[in-house]
UniProtKB/TrEMBL annotation:
The PLD phosphodiesterase domain, residue ranges: 238-265, 415-442
Main location: membrane
Pfam families: PLDc_2 (PF13091)
Organism of provenance: Luteolibacter luteus
Annotated EC: 2.7.8.-
Keyword field contains Lipid metabolism: yes
Name the record gives this protein: Cardiolipin synthase
GO molecular function terms attached to this record: cardiolipin synthase activity
Gene3D superfamilies: Endonuclease Chain A (3.30.870.10)
PROSITE patterns (UniProt xref): PLD
InterPro entries on file: Cardiolipin_synthase, PLD-like_dom, PLipase_D/transphosphatidylase
Record key words, sorted: Cell membrane, Lipid biosynthesis, Lipid metabolism, Membrane, Phospholipid biosynthesis, Phospholipid metabolism, Repeat, Transferase, Transmembrane, Transmembrane helix
Subcellular localization: Cell membrane
Gene assigned in the entry: cls
Length: 502
């Protein structure tokens, strides 16, 4: 008897299942095709917005390429990070600063009346004063604070000695051992009648729990998040972060530099290990000048002016006579003040320019300035970390080796932990410590603070510190990039293309 292969009738359950499966497969394919078309259309349209609105041609090119080649991730990233609503923000922020202007004028007038203005003869000094909208001050005492233990011991000591008020501002604040120690110090001062004003960035401190804030507020600390949103409800998304780190006590003692508040900043990070950073303590009129950017940020965040602060500066009680300038920079400045600061330091250098930064992602004008400085015989050294906390930045740095080849520019990679300091040393008498990194975000998008010091003794201490850092570093060479595998060299070049977005 011959067996015949029989197909299931069309009405069988198996056949119906096959037809249903095929139907959904076709719909899925149509939906996928529609999504691809929609994504690339959105990418193309958004790239037009990026070309029209992005502040630099490099940034516009980077966004246009990303939006058209990788729209699935680039489109949402642009509307979160790249779409700046810049003009609306600039108008709003400048209006806010103008409301606060009379306080700045009052402080400047007091400096003149008390003969605390320092006349800097070099053109760079005049230029920095115009960028800052503030004056170089004299009668300051400046102390270099190296690493976390020295920095936070000094900050906590100053808070303990506060008589009238304490101003605190950080980009990152964490509810960990160090963060709770700061909280306890501030709460203890409020019980003695000292007023405490606390600002933290809402994105940088995103992990900060409401309990931490509530405990401070319940104790009488006036604490607010710095947001790019207006009080009228308008949003300006995730750009324009407040990256400043400021502590001022009684208008007489001030601190600024690279440190935020978290255990990693005292070398307790699980993977980065030892944390190399630098802060600055200043006593005298320079401390009072730090109140200006804090006051502007406070007014933006709260709508109130801190009239109760001491806006009458006085010279340091130690008798020191260091010249110092407080240079606040940000995206609402009339010029790209932060980038111009670095450019002026590089272009003005006659003997040396040493720059330490955890992020080395300069634009073409900065690279050209470094090349010219080296070609005219200036000792150009750049100090960056060996161990990265950002892969894009890590790969980008290698791409600049070709630019410095043949110019005697030296790039050192610090390899004794993670290096986070932001320090500049120019010649034998000019240096700066602050929060600004050597990248596009600090140059154009973040609110930063830099304290520039014109003093030979202080510059000598900075030089000694950096020389020790160079000993703990290795010198990069072009050959090491050539010896890397192709995928590494490709990642380096692609990361360089995305430099304006980093």
């Amino acid at each position: 008897m011959t067996a015949e292969l029989s197909l299931a009738p069309e009405s069988s359950p198996l056949s119906r299942f096959g037809r249903v499966k095929g139907y959904f497969a076709k719909r899925k394919k149509r939906y996928l095709s529609a999504f691809v078309v929609l994504a690339h259309t959105a990418g193309a349209l958004t790239s037009i917005e990026a070309i029209m609105e992005t502040r630099t041609s490099q940034g516009a090119i980077a966004w246009a390429l990303s939006l058209n080649l990788f729209p699935y991730g680039a489109v949402p990233a642009y509307w979160v990070f790249g779409h700046s609503e810049l003009q609306g923000y600039v108008v709003a922020r400048r209006s806010s600063a103008a409301d606060f202007q009379y306080v700045s004028d009052k402080l400047r007038n007091a400096l003149t009346e008390r003969e605390l203005r320092s006349e800097i003869e070099k053109p760079m000094g005049k230029m920095l004063e115009k960028l800052a909208g503030l004056s170089f001050t004299r009668g300051n005492e400046a102390e270099l604070l190296i690493d976390g233990e020295a920095t936070f011991n000094s900050i906590f000591e100053a808070i303990d000695a506060a008589q009238s008020y304490v101003l605190v501002q950080f980009y990152i604040v964490k509810d960990d051992e160090l963060g709770r120690k700061l909280k306890d110090k501030l709460i203890a001062k409020t019980t003695t009648g000292v007023k405490v004003y606390f600002l933290y960035d809402e994105i940088g401190s995103l992990s900060l729990g409401s309990g931490y804030v509530r405990e401070l507020r319940d104790a009488g600390v006036q604490i607010h998040a710095f947001s790019t949103s207006r009080r009228d409800g308008r949003k300006f998304q995730l750009n324009f972060r407040n990256h400043r780190k400021i502590v001022v006590v009684d208008g007489k003692t001030g601190f600024t530099g690279g440190f935020n508040v978290g255990n990693e900043y005292v070398s307790q990070h699980a993977t980065l290990g030892a944390w190399r950073d630098t802060h600055l303590r200043i006593r005298g009129p320079g401390a009072a000048m730090l109140q200006v950017p804090f006051g502007e940020d406070w007014y933006w965040a709260t709508g109130t002016v801190l009239n109760e602060l001491s806006w009458t500066p006085s010279a340091s009680e130690s008798g020191a006579d260091v010249s110092a300038l407080c240079l606040p920079t940000g995206p609402a400045d009339k010029m790209e003040s932060c980038a111009l600061f670095f450019l002026s330091a590089i272009n003005s250098a006659e003997r040396r320019i040493w720059i330490a930064s955890p992020y080395f992602v300069p634009d073409e004008q900065i690279i050209s300035a470094l090349q010219l400085a080296a070609l005219r015989g200036v000792d150009v050294r750049l100090l960056i970390p060996e161990q990265p906390d950002n892969k894009l930045v890590y790969f980008s740095a290698y791409s600049y080796l070709k630019d410095v080849q043949g110019t005697d520019i030296k790039i050192y990679r610090y390899n004794q932990g993670f290096m986070h300091q932001k320090v500049v040393l120019m010649d034998d008498d000019f240096s700066s410590v602050g929060s600004a990194n050597f990248d596009n975000r600090s140059f154009r998008l973040n609110f930063e603070i830099t304290m520039a010091i014109k003093n030979r003794d202080f510059a000598g201490k900075v030089a000694t510190m950096l020389e020790e850092d160079f000993k703990r570093s290795r010198l990069m060479t072009q050959e090491e990039l050539d010896q890397k595998p192709f995928h590494f060299r490709l990642a380096s070049r692609v990361s360089r293309l995305l430099a304006p977005l980093q």
